[in-house]
Structure of Glycosyltransferase RgtA/B/C/D-like domain-containing protein:
Amino acid sequence: MDSTSDASPTSPRRESVWLDWQWYIVLVVALLIRGGAGYLQYENFSQDPDSYRLLANNILRIHSFTLDDPAEPTAFRPPLYPLLLAVTSISRHVLPEEVLLLHIALGVVTAVLTFFWAIQMGLERWRSVAGLLVAIDPILLNQSTLVMTETLATCLAILTLVAVSSLANKHLSSDDARGSRDATISAVNIAGAIGLAIFCRPTFLVWATLLPIAVWFCCRGWKLRISSVLAYGLMLLFLLAPWVVRNMLVFESPVLGTTHGGHTLLWGNNESYYEYLRSGKTPVWDNTEFHQRFARRNPYLGTSASELARDKAAYREAIDTMKQNPDMAAYSVLVRFTMFWRLLPNALSQDESGKRTMVRYAIGAWYLAQFALVIAGLFAIGKNLRKPGWIAALMLLASFTLVHLFFWSNMRMRSPLVPILAVLACAGIELIWNRLTKR
């Protein structure tokens, strides 16, 4: 690897995006699009499908991370998103308009960070396209109107990638007198970003274990590489330790992520779902009976111990189901792969309206075009995929895909990958543009 920098050697250097008029265009357009989507779907912000508002309100009201009152500590959901809902609630009631404003802000930040990352990756000409692709992405638009974690998770994913590329583009080496300090600070920044991402969605844990590979190639010289990886690892452990210690005290078990993992594994690996895959009689699996049966076998007793026991029971049942049905387990892996990377949303009913069908197929056409550009972009980047920023990006794509081969999967699960796909698509656009202009 001749250069650790992510940017192309021929890329012009900008002193600051604050002086870039296109940056402001992306900011304003992202603000209007995300704000408009939130306004049109405003009623969604009154709902609480995953109990994040309940957690946030309990933080504000009884000062405890709990789903119950009286308080019984929980780890069923990751802590960052409800904490952010609580902190940004001026009314201290997590009102719909407060969630809307938070999601608009996160969406705008995600778009402008993607804009900046495109510059870092040597695609300055298409920086605005990258930011706008993220701003108008159908999955992100839909999730930005729901009280769920995807909007925050996507923002933290691109923040981590920007941190990795920032370290790579400093061209630090062991011969540089300031190299060790700058590398340490940058590695700590990377750990901080991925640490926050883990507290938003534990799936990032897999990526976090792979990121030292990218950090290693960000610098020149063994000494600087080792110190950077150590700084990253130590800071990440420091950030994760309080949550693990808290869970040790509550559950008497080192819960690193959540007590929800067993349920999501079982959700995609149970007899009812396997039977649905065998028959395929309806467009969507009706999981009502599955949840009811699990609740009857493993009732929640209103205690932290019961919560952990249910999680462990779900893991055991899922693993047993896979062992007893190896063929269906393997087939379900393929199904979840297609669910994760599918082009258009699944039909929710056989009696779907014509309007909804048109919307679904329009979304499918959008992603078909984008994925074609992504493939072209991968071809165009070629050997430069060995650059640290691309290494980190590809590891994120691979880690999320791998996790959701086994755990429950659908299109929204790939939300944090959207900025990567947008920038790769821009590389594809550049390839096509260059071919056309050379004719």
